Amino acid sequence: MECRMTKDDLLGALYLAQGIVDRRVTLPVLAHVLIQVSNREATILATDQEIGLRRRSGAVVSKRGAATANARVLYEIVRSLADGEIELRTDERYQLEVKQGRSQFRIVGIDPEEFPAMPAAPEAKTKAQLSIDAENLRRMLELTLFASSADEARPALCGVCFERRDGLLNVVASDGHRLSLVSRPLKGVRADASVILSRKAVTEMLKVLDGLSGEVQLTFAGGVVFLGAGDVELAMRTVQAEFPSYEAVIPRESKRALRIPAGRWSQALRRVGVLAVEQTHPVRLTLDSGKVEMWARNTELGEAREEVEAEYTGDTFTIGFNVRYLLDVLGLFPGDTTVAVELEDDESPTIFRVPDEPEFLYVLMPMRLS
Amino acid sequence: MREQLNSVIERLRSQAATMEEEAALRAVQYVAHDKERCLLEVKPLLAAIAREKLLPKIQASLSQAMGRPVRVHIRVARSPQRELFPFFRAPDSNEAEGIPDTGHGRTFEHFVVGPTNRFAHAAAFAVARNPGRQYNPLFLYGNVGLGKTHLLHAIAHGIREQHPALEVRYVTADAFMAEVVYAIRRNRLPHFKARFHRIDVLLVDDVQLLAGRERTQEEFFHIFNTLHESGKQIVLAADRPPDELLQLEERLRNRFTWGLVVDIQPPELETRVAILQRKAQLEGVELPYEVALTLAQHLGHSVRELHGILTRLLALASLTGADITLDLAQKVLGSTTRGEDRPVTLERIQETVAHFFGLRVEDLRSPRRSRAIATARQIAMYLCRQDLGASFPYIGECFGGRDHTTVIHAVTSIERRQTLEPELRRVIESLRRIVRTGEGSPLSPWKPAPERE
Question: Is the pTM above the cut of 0.90?
């Protein structure tokens, strides 16, 4: 194998590979990237056997072939080189030579045959393929990923669920305490189905989508979801678990309604939250005519209290929340956004909506106050 | 269903038999229900009472009130945060994996370290951090209620957190035996073995219960070898060191000493105080230092006993709405010790047991071996070991200069018989009470059942 590529192309691929390669040394080849060089193209692949990355870029090819190299080492090398072309060449002992000007590296590789095969997206258009605007998809993931769980004992919640139903794409995540849902009508949504992608997969999707515009393709094929975005293709194995049926926990209507600006509320919550130090970060909200009072206390440290003006006309009402769960959702929107909160009582799910992004919904369970 | 539940609990409260039951009923919190299930929560201290004593009653009454069968789950309250999908994970799913759900969790964080258990704690911690590397197997031993099981669970939790990819299995020797028996009966031994060979970290509690179970020991031996050879971590806990597990095959005992053998001794006063305060803190209750000190001074050395008295104290405080004061503590202590604080001594155990069986102390020390005397002697030896923590040779010495292996046999056989003969268990419980409080028992002297060997 012998070719020349630009630093930008090579670095772009290696950057994406960093998040994917398997750092646990179960299988040494999984810490490597595979570089495949064909006619006028170099493809860089990385996988942890759950997620696979393929990135194609133009190359000046002298000799076709393949090579592998440790993903981290190659990334560090390429990053430190000057802008411009980089030469890549392998020898029969699978060593990869990286050359630019007077810099020369020889990196130990592994037989490319050992690199695990990765599923490729179906060539033909299938019923299960849909096109979506890259920025739209990125926003949908951003609005949901944060609400997923890190508790691996509940794999179904350790990711984001993609549900195609009735012409809608629903993207939803929950850690069992709160749930975040974005629904968008989408052309091409025909076959109803629901799959879960791991947090890692969604994090990598966000990286791929970062700064991208235009249409990208999502293809649902058996146990794998493909994201096709320009030169990049991500293959992501779905999580073998069933997402809990969540419609039932979204209340249809609630007794109390509150409207409050996101920015001012979150600043106040951040201040009061300084004293919500227990494991569950409890703050007490008291809704009263025209205002919300926030209060937190720690027996050893002290207490904090603050009021924020809000549109509220109901009875005086007290409810407890984990302040982090409130800050998480408020932080997703510009400060002047109005947040509409619907509350039933102090033990039922509370709903957060944002009139500026009507496809978004956040359901939060309150906390028992002692 | 909530209305019915409230009235059921209200009714049961008016009929509660003990203070603890009443306190548990007051503390039970509704979490969620669907058509055929009702999920309740209770504080960790009251969980055992709630599950054993209250659950069947609540379930029966609630089913009756609803006119259809309702399954009631009581789980340990983990956090004040309410859940969106309370039924999504079956409330008891943790227990299925072998690690009982203990609520606040028997983690390292909640283990109170003192001079008598520091080494055991450090070894367990090292194992959780680097399973299979350092101490393999790790063998922990010590008397009941000193925290062996806590450390095993802590290792399991620690590994789950730091090495989520590893498969961890906690099993008591009893449960292991049951699985072996089941596998043999169902002709599923290969499947059973394969399941254990997949494990990365095996934690076995109460290893002494393998005594005399030859087939189980055989299977355990092979599993031990396979895991150990492939560098998998094994942790064992027993009530005595490997060389005193006389009814275990020598090759097993021998293997148990390959890694590190560490003992856990009863906590000294300062640690006992710390244990009480930590436990109270977990319950969200402030325990004044002088109260903790008084309790710690008056109580025996087992952590379990300390937790027991604290439960009583907190239950009483929450029931009567009283503050936790020295007075209240003394009241609670009084109800257990009847005002008289009698140190448990070997002589007292001998006297009490002899009197209970209508014998003289000399009979216990004599070489006579009639069945009645032999059983009484074995029970007395057992109590000396369990409640006093005396060494086997010393006990042998005090019972007419018997060999320490005789004592070990006596202790093991009483342990085993207790699981088969509830009557014997009751007798031992009441003997314990008499030894501790000096109070006569309503039970008439007991005629031992013929021993079945």
Answer: no
